[in-house]
DUF805 domain-containing protein
Amino acid sequence: MQADPVLTPKPRLPRVVARVGRLRYLNLLAATVVSAFVVLLLLCLLLRSHRGGIHLFIVWLGVGLVIWQQVAAAIVSVWRLHDLGRSGAWALLWLVPYGGVVTTVYLLIAPGNAMPNRFGPAPALPGKLDKGLAAIVMVSMVAIAGASWWWGPVTVLGPVIDGFLALDR
């Protein structure tokens, strides 16, 4: 006996539906930046150990890394927008000049929906790990901002830039 084609459900494409709260959003954004920085350092070490035509290859890997980091941050932002009950299309505000900064600040400040919405159930409350990592991220951000304000961004970032430039010698 064959199945009736009218009653047989068509297979659906899987939808990625996720919601994250403010602390987890902050931690995931920090994870994308830190992972991109670690890979960039590894690329610099590779550049230091190989001479010749590898330089252009490393540059393109760095460009790809920046693109990957931005895509990962956009995905995490869509998850956060889902927690606010908004469509992921709002993440396109990142393409507007200064829109990414304004959107990120809004996503870090705005409280999410405590009830289930069309994007799924409410995210779990942040645990001790989320709170601890968020505290480390916030302290690091305040320390870097304070040092940049006190000594100037060139003085704070100068040794890092010098380290990258020294890798080429």
